[in-house]
């Protein structure tokens, strides 16, 4: 299935761009699981940490293009939350690169697979999340 | 030799060192210091010049130390943490060393509420242990705190105070050890009246080998009256005056004489105590009695450093 | 309010060394409001510690609890059943709260999760500035409502020093000169006369320099008789 | 908070105790509840065949709480939805999951289905196994991923709680238009033509509504429109008036309108702020040799055209962003001069010529007629003597040019006045220069952050008259649609748990829509009519006192756990 990656997607743009990618038949790694949020601003540091604790190899958050958020500044808030998680991941030694914020427009179906590619490449570089490996071993 | 001071040389030669105390005056007149120095010269190896003792404004310990030196008396300059931050402390140490002061006693200092400037702000940028750390580094590595290098480090023999009578008792030796670790060369203790407790403390000091690392001088205050004894028992924190001493002073026909006798007896006892390298005699407001005490204790003449 | 900020994660982890069961204890008051030690921060830190433990096979058990005010014994007492289960409490309150937790649970080690900084106020979302020096002898009526104790780097009482330039303090071009602000404020208020007078040396006894302070409002203190009477009723 | 007990943190203390503390548990972990139905869609060939829907069904049907799990051809069809309603009723289900195509496509339908089944419309969760599985992965990958997605949807669904769902109370279908010019007239006209009753509030007498004509609007057209609406029975004009207070929620606002004769409370269902900016007098104009574009137009109206003209479109203090109409205006006047006399020299100095849309044709025409363009970055230096000299650095040539000319035409700028007060009354923000800020300038240009309050006019952004007309009509249509609709809101809205709230103001400071406020109890509350459900406050609340329905911490946690915490 490839690396386990969670993508938190805002309903308006991130999720829509994945929908469009799907309808356009643009394939990407099946290890990517999307969690739909009303706005990327709903993302909580805790959600991302929970995903990593459960063993996610990478997490990305997708919001609308900057200055184009349906909720004015939700995507900027999300960017700050992602930065908070980056700092924590660095402190934990997991690597800040495992989490990233992306901004797309709803009609950019081609962007979604690129985002997945980018995150997959990062996991290849950083290696799998040790917590996922431990969890798999224990099961 | 770290400093070449007189008492350092005496300690090095294994001599039993005697120090006294000269209180700087509440005056800009140098004469009182000079007169005291002249009078006491030869009765002790060095004299502490207190630093605004009990937070009462007096002539500075540095100036007083220099006046003593002019009279041929070796000073031990005291420096409290109360009134200076680390900038002033380091600067004053450089100045003192430049003027020839070779002994410096690092102490926290009495809180200002006890003196005549109770409204003042205190500093305590450093505590006495940190002060020792900073000063020993200046001397040994020629560096101010931080990394900046000194062209010439201060030459100074570093003293510290120790109080075996404060609480918690079980920490008291550890605190001494910390001071030794921080760089203290010699220790002057709080005035001893409770000799039993002091012995217990010294036993612990010896068991940790601290007496091998630092020169411990026992502190003594000759009692002038039973009132003075009671005052020290009740009003001065960190002092223990046993009831036997008070009873003995009370029973005495001549309390002053009795006070001196107690002090002399204590010195005689301390001379036999392992790990004690000297005594520090503080005849508070009774400075002129020092020669008599030293003579009766058989500590004269004082050796040439 | 009291302003604090979380200690670096690595420092917290270092300080927790040797402990296995940890209660991360937050406070809903000042430190929650300054986004340092409320339930959210407790949750995030606890989850981070769990990940740290899993990654390093430490076997830590990390619990979370947040009380209304950690600076009051009655609230802290509520932690008792949880503290019993752990060998250490990581307090996310200010230094006051951490001390009260230790006082209430003298046999359990308390480790501070925050650095307590000052008494201040939010300038805007996410920015807090020190405002009060807590000197115990307020002079705001003389200084145009601006505290020179907290906001002047030198605690000066008689106007800006030579380091005041264009309204800024010499220590840092981002820091406003408190005395410039005082001057502007008194000017607006038409009370520059207050700056003409020399303020004499300050009495620092009501401040920290007089030793730790205790405020007694005797009308609120239960007398011994009252206490006995209440015990009798119990 | 009306979330059922257990869905959120467990409270340890009983009510007699002063403190509330939380058990050291991971928030949101609780026993799943409910009787869940799962409806899997074959979706013609676009799901079934591309993944093994039967194996997904087998996997899911054994999950705790799943009472019914069936595969259907098109659950979104009318027929299938009737079946779902029946299945829900017969099995006494209280929530359900649909697995098929994107929720963005089908969510609304299944909300209705939930309602028809007697459930709260938000008791449905949708797993996207089409766009995210069958269309993008191979059969085996798509099958196992679909299993995970449906499991995660079930996990989340089991924690769903009925979300607030308000049916509109449209108490007034009237629309308030508050304006000072052209867009107010056009918006009112549009509303009238759609049959809405309008209160037109103007700061001056309606007769002072005068208009500039260019950009293809027939002269007299707007005056006719003005007279038509002031005569209309549907319009009540409040001249010399201002709105002093504006409260309520969409469908039921109350405005306090004050005139010299006194104050009056007006009920309305929606409002339009139709504010026009006015020209900023330029301080740098100098006599008859340096004029504005408007003054140039009057000169040309008199049949005169100078031999040499330089048009400057950069503002002195702001060399970067020209207003929208600046270049269009310059291009059209340059063309007009060339039309009047092809021999005259016309030079346009600009940073970049921004000719929007069809104005690009004007640019081409100006070029073909021999208008010269100088690209620069800094505002040119103008010296006035007998003639005027313009010194400008030409970026293309990389040289400083000195141009002698007979006339310099400066573009003028606009700024809306008195908008600060309007902004305060309506709770809609303005920028530093006083322009109203729409919620989303590209996607929702006429929406303000206050639901039910719409924006139009040059007070939002500089625009051409024809654009003003379009925008005013759009704002009017939206306002009319709002007061005519069923007006439902709710679902993903935020709610504060007053017990946990520290009244720290973080939500109030961070909400883009001003929905949170401190209520009478001293704790934060959310004005549900203003909450747009973004969840920013939830992610920020330091006391974790806010939850967003449909996306609570517990629900998302369960979903994340199901998606990630599995062996692959």
At a glance:
By secondary structure, chain C is an alpha/beta fold. Chain C is built from nine helices and seven strands; from the N terminus they run E-H-E-H-H-E-H-H-E-H-E-E-E-H-H-H. Chain C has a four-stranded parallel sheet, sandwiched between helices.
Q: What does this protein look like?
A:
The complex is a heterotetramer of chains A (139), B (305), C (234) and D (568). Chain A is built from 5 helices and 4 strands. With 139 residues, chain A is of the alpha/beta class. In chain A, strands 2-1-3-4 form a 4-stranded parallel beta sheet, sandwiched between helices. Chain B is of the alpha/beta class and 305 residues long. Chain B has a single domain, classed as TIM Barrel (Alpha-Beta Barrel). Helix content of chain B is 40%, strand content 15%. In chain B, helix 3 links the parallel strand 2 and strand 3. Chain B is globular and about 60 Å long. The two termini of chain B are 13 Å apart. Chain C is built from 9 helices and 7 strands. By secondary structure, chain C is an alpha/beta fold. In chain C, strands 3-2-4-5 form a 4-stranded parallel beta sheet, with helices on both faces. A 3-stranded antiparallel beta sheet of chain C has the order 1-6-7. In chain C, 32% of the residues lie in helices and 19% in strands. Classes of the chains: A alpha/beta (139), B alpha/beta (305), C alpha/beta (234), D alpha/beta (568).
């Amino acid at each position: 299935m490839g690396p386990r990656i969670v993508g938190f997607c805002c309903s308006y743009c991130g999720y829509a761009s994945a929908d469009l990618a799907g309808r356009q038949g643009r394939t990407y790694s099946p290890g990517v699981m999307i969690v739909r949020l009303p706005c990327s601003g709903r993302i909580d540091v805790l959600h991302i940490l929970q995903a990593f604790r459960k063993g996610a190899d990478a997490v990305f958050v997708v919001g609308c293009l900057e200055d184009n958020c349906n909720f004015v500044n939700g995507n900027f808030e999300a960017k700050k939350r992602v930065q908070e998680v980056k700092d924590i991941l660095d402190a934990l030694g997991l690597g800040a690169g495992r989490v990233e914020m992306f901004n797309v427009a709803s009609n950019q179906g081609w962007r979604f697979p690129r985002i997945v590619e980018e995150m997959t490449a990062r996991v290849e570089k950083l290696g799998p999340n040790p917590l996922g490996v431990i969890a798999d071993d224990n099961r | 030799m770290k400093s070449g001071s007189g008492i350092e040389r005496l300690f090095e030669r294994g001599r039993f060192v005697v120090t006294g105390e000269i209180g700087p005056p509440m005056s800009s007149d140098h004469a009182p210091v000079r007169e005291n120095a002249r009078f006491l010269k030869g009765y002790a190896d060095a004299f502490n010049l207190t630093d605004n003792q009990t937070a009462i404004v007096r002539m500075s310990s540095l100036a007083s130390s220099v006046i003593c030196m002019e009279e041929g008396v070796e000073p031990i300059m005291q420096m409290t943490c109360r009134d200076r931050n680390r900038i002033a402390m380091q600067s004053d140490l450089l100045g003192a060393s430049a003027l020839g002061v070779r002994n410096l006693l690092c102490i926290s200092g009495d809180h200002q509420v006890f003196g005549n400037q109770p409204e003042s702000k205190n500093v305590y940028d450093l505590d006495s242990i940190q002060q020792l750390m900073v000063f020993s580094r200046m001397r040994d590595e020629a560096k101010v705190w931080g990394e900046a290098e000194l062209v010439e480090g201060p030459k100074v023999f570093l003293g510290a105070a120790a109080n075996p009578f404060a609480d918690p008792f079980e920490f008291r030796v550890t605190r001494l050890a910390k001071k030794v670790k921080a760089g203290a060369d010699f220790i002057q203790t709080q005035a001893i009246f409770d000799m039993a407790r002091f012995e217990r403390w010294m036993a612990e000091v010896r068991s940790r080998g601290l007496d091998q690392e630092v020169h411990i001088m026992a502190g003594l205050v000759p009692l002038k009256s039973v009132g003075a004894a009671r005052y020290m028992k009740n009003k001065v924190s960190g002092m223990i005056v046993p009831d036997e001493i008070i009873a003995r002073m009370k029973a005495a026909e001549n309390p002053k004489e009795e006070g001196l006798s107690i002090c002399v007896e204590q010195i005689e006892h301390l001379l036999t105590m392992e790990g004690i390298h000297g005594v520090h005699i503080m005849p508070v407001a009774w400075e002129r009695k020092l020669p008599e005490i030293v003579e009766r204790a058989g500590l004269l003449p004082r050796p040439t450093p | 309010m009291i302003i604090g900020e979380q200690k670096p994660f690595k420092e917290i982890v270092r300080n927790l060394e040797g402990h296995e069961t940890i209660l991360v204890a937050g406070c809903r008051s000042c430190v929650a409001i300054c986004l340092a030690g409320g339930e959210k921060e407790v949750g995030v830190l606890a989850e981070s510690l769990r990940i740290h433990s899993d990654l390093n096979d430490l076997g830590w058990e990390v619990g979370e609890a947040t009380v209304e005010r950690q600076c009051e014994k009655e609230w802290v007492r509520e932690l008792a059943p949880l503290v019993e289960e752990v060998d250490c409490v990581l307090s996310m309150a200010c230094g006051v709260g951490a001390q009260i937790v230790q006082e209430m649970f003298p046999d359990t080690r308390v480790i501070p999760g925050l650095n307590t900084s000052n008494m201040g106020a939010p300038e805007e979302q996410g920015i807090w500035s020190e405002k009060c020096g807590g000197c115990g002898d307020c002079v705001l009526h003389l200084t145009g409502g601006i505290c020179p104790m907290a906001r002047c780097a030198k605690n000066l009482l008689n106007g800006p020093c030579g380091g005041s330039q264009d309204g800024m303090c010499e220590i840092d071009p981002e820091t406003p000169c408190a005395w410039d602000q005082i001057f502007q404020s008194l000017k607006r208020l038409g009370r520059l006369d207050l700056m003409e007078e020399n303020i004499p040396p300050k009495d620092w006894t009501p401040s920290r320099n007089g030793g730790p302070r205790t405020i007694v409002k005797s009308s609120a203190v239960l007398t011994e008789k009252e206490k006995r009477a209440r015990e009798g009723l119990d | 908070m009306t979330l059922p007990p257990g869905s959120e943190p467990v409270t340890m203390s009983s009510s007699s105790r002063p403190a509330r503390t939380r058990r050291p548990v991971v928030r949101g972990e609780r026993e799943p509840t409910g009787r869940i139905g799962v409806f899997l869609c074959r979706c013609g060939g676009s799901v079934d065949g591309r993944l093994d829907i039967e194996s997904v069904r087998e996997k899911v049907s054994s999950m705790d709480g799943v009472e019914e799990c069936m595969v259907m051809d098109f659950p979104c069809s009318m027929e299938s939805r009737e079946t779902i309603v029946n299945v829900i009723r017969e099995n006494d289900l209280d929530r359900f999951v649909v697995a098929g195509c994107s929720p963005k496509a089908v969510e609304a339908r299944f909300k209705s289905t939930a309602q028809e089944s007697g459930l709260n419309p938000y008791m449905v969760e949708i797993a996207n196994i089409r766009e995210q599985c069958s269309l993008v992965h191979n059969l085996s990958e798509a099958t196992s991923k679909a299993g995970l997605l449906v499991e995660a949807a079930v996990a989340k669904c089991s924690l769903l709680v009925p979300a607030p769902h308000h049916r509109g109370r449209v108490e007034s279908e009237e629309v308030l238009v508050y304006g000072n010019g052209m867009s107010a007239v056009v918006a009112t006209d549009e509303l009238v033509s759609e049959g809405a009753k309008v209160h037109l509030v103007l700061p001056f007498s309606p007769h002072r509504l005068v208009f500039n004509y260019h950009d293809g609007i027939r002269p007299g057209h707007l005056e006719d429109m003005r007279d038509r609406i002031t005569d209309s029975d549907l319009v009540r004009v409040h001249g010399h008036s201002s709105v002093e207070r504006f409260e309520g929620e969409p469908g039921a606002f109350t405005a306090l309108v004050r005139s010299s004769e006194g104050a009056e409370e007006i009920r309305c269902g929606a409002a339009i702020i139709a504010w026009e900016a006015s020209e900023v007098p330029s301080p740098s104009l100098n006599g008859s040799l340096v004029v504005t574009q408007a003054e140039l137009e009057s000169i040309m109206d008199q049949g005169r055209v100078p031999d040499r003209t330089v048009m400057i479109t950069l503002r002195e203090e702001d060399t970067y962003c020209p207003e929208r109409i600046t270049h269009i205006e310059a291009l059209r006047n340059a063309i007009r001069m060339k039309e009047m006399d092809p021999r005259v020299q016309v030079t346009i100095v600009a940073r970049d010529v921004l000719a929007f849309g069809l104005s690009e044709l004007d640019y081409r025409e100006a070029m073909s007629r021999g208008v010269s363009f100088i690209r620069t970055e800094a505002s040119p230096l103008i010296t006035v003597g007998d003639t005027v000299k313009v010194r400008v650095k030409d970026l293309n040539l990389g040289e400083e040019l000195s141009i002698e000319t007979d006339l310099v035409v400066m573009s003028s700028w606009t700024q809306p006045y008195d908008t600060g007060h309007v902004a305060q009354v309506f709770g809609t923000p303005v920028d530093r220069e006083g322009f109203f800020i729409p919620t989303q300038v590209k996607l929702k240009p006429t929406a303000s952050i206050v639901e039910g309050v719409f924006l139009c006019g040059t007070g939002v952004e500089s625009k051409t008259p024809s654009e003003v007309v379009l925008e005013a009509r759009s704002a009017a249509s939206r306002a009319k649609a709002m007061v005519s609709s069923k007006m439902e809101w709710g679902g993903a809205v935020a709610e504060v748990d007053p017990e946990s709230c520290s009244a720290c103001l973080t939500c109030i400071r961070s909400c883009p829509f001003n929905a949170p406020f401190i209520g009478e109890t001293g704790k934060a509350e959310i004005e549900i009519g203003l909450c747009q459900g973004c969840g920013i406050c939830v992610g920020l609340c330091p006391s974790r006192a806010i939850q967003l329905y449909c996306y609570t911490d517990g629900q998302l946690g369960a979903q994340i756990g199901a998606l990630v915490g599995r062996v692959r």
